[in-house]
Design a protein that fits this description.
The protein is an alpha/beta fold. 37% of the residues lie in helices and 20% in strands. The chain has helices spanning 38-51, 53-66, 82-90, 103-115, 155-164, 195-213, 224-230, 251-268, 274-284; strands spanning 72-76, 95-100, 122-126, 140-146, 166-182, 234-245, 300-310. The chain is globular, with a radius of gyration of 19 Å. The relative contact order is 0.15. Mean pLDDT is 88; it is low at 1-34.
Length: 313
């Protein structure tokens, strides 16, 4: 499985699940690359990551105050490389290596880096995480993992493997957790109020099942600073970054919300009650004036948390 989801996850893990990572491929964890239309998926992933760019820029700006003049930055679970290229912009002297399980997505990442004028210091590495990191020629000064660790069965072991690829004094930055995404008011005038909260509960159950079904799955309390400490790192810090796109929604935001809810319906409709399914169908009906295509109250609000820690010198 390619490690780069950006799609609907439970409240604390939400990002459009393709996963979404959002860095979301269609979340079938048993799916093979041959079952995925990577051309279509890459476009979806790029679109989502570009929507989230203001959040990522703030996160990388914060990291830039913590990590000065890194020589090598590794984006573990890079997908099509939107964040990788942001790293190239923020850290102008660094070499960037995008790592992912999908060669087609890495091709998109390399093309994007070339278009952004960073092709001469941009590399890619295809393979399964975390083992493929052993192929890196040099230890990383900054290793970034955005919503990819939770797709690995043993998250604690994965973080230890990531930590082992850091240079002394190097930083591991993990984007996991945050707050539930909201894009509609609690009472939307159709159906029972609180639809998104009920979808969150269904998503949380789905995510628990997904984690349990991963190869080598091990249950760990999702205390990310504690997991980073257990990986042998110290000086852990956490910071949450907000993406606030208020109503009236732009066409781009509205399209993203429609895509997000469509994926939720396709994957989880059977777990919602009949009234909520009917409400979701109305929201997704382009001809319904109460639907997402026409509502003036559509917005987009979410928060993602970055946890960092440092390998001892």
């Amino acid at each position: 499985m390619a490690q780069h989801d950006h799609d609907q996850h439970p409240p604390e893990h939400r990002h459009d699940d393709r996963h979404g990572h959002h860095h979301g491929h269609p979340h079938g964890h048993g799916a093979t690359d041959t079952e995925i239309d990577w051309a279509e998926m890459a476009s979806l992933l790029e679109s989502e990551a570009e929507l989230f760019t203001p959040l990522y820029e703030r996160a990388l700006g914060w990291l830039a105050k913590e990590v000065t003049e890194p020589g090598l930055i590794v984006d573990a679970g890079s997908g099509p490389g939107v964040i990788s290229c942001l790293f190239a912009e923020v850290f102008e002297g660094a070499r960037i290596v995008a790592v992912d399980g999908s060669a087609p997505l890495l091709e998109r990442a390399a093309d994007r880096a070339a278009r952004h004028g960073a092709g001469d210091r941009f590399g890619t590495l295809a393979g399964e995480l975390p083992g493929v990191l052993d192929e890196l020629e040099y230890p990383a000064d900054l290793l970034w993992a955005s919503r990819s660790v939770h797709h690995l069965g043993d998250q604690r072991a994965a973080l230890a493997a990531y930590a082992a690829r850091l240079a002394p004094g190097g930083t591991l930055a993990v984007l996991e957790g945050g707050l539930p995404t909201r894009y509609l008011p609690r009472d939307i005038g159709i159906g029972r109020p609180g639809l998104q909260s009920r979808i969150d509960a269904v998503e949380a159950d789905w995510f628990t099942r997904m984690r349990a079904e991963l190869p080598g799955s091990v249950a760990h309390t999702e205390d990310w600073p504690a997991l980073l400490t257990a990986a042998g790192l110290h000086h852990s810090r956490s910071r949450t970054f907000l993406l606030d796109l208020p109503a009236p929604a732009t066409d781009r935001v509205r399209a993203h919300v429609v895509t997000t809810l469509t994926r939720t319906r396709d994957r989880l409709a059977g777990e919602l009650d009949a009234e909520d399914r009917a409400t979701v169908d109305r929201l997704l009906d382009p001809a319904d004036e109460a639907g997402l295509h026409h509502r003036p109250d559509v917005f987009f609000l979410t928060a993602h948390t970055v946890h960092t820690a440092v390998r001892p010198v």
